[in-house]
Amino acid sequence: MPDKSGLPRLEPVGREQDRPSALVLVLHGGRAHSRESGEPKRLTYRRMVPFARALSRRGPAVYLLRYRFRGWNAPARDALRDAQWALGELAERFPGVPVVLVGHSMGGRAALGAAGASNVVAVCALAPWLDGSDPVVQLDGRTVLIAHGDRERWTDPGESYRFAVRAKERGVAVCRFDVPGAGHFMLTRIGVWNALVRRFALGVLGIEPVDPVIANALHQPTPSGLRAVLHGAHT
């Protein structure tokens, strides 16, 4: 439940819908350790606003989550706890409506961790911060896309690859893309990042046709489906 500050908090993006047919929950990044308030709209939050707005214009109801704290704060895993709270809120407000989780960095880790909620159908994790300790069992029955820039300096793309391998071995529908020329903050080739998120989320929700590039990667065996290269034509 939210504390006295009103956090965690779901913030609608675009037009609010009373009876949406699909939902997207967007989780921004943060820090490994910080008990600072999640109230200020820092760059980590603002970075995800264009993704949320682009999705909201295509039909689903979209929400950005404001965490209680900036940090993951292991073993508390505060961002994951807040994501789980948010999914419970959405399930109560909109029973039976499917949710796609979209998260960046720490938010990507929280999205992957929270995927076991009954209303989640898919996860899109952008440059997720993983350390080898994250489970994959919660991904059963979900569709998962992971993407990392090949100029990543803040998180380890090798960890996301190994995570994807473990999920694939379990039978999860997972693909993973390398984005050439892009770094952690997605400032370079932002159009490619945005198109990837949009096509994945809208495809799994049935709002748009399934993207053939993503579909092909999902069906490829390891390692090809987990080391797919996202070229500039995918915009």
UniProtKB/TrEMBL annotation:
Keywords: Hydrolase. InterPro entries: AB_hydrolase_1, AB_hydrolase_fold. Gene3D superfamilies: alpha/beta hydrolase (3.40.50.1820). The keyword 4Fe-4S does not apply. GO terms for molecular function: hydrolase activity. Residues 24-144 form the AB hydrolase-1 domain. It comes from the Bacteria. The keyword DNA damage does not apply. This is Alpha/beta hydrolase. It comes from Pseudonocardia hydrocarbonoxydans.
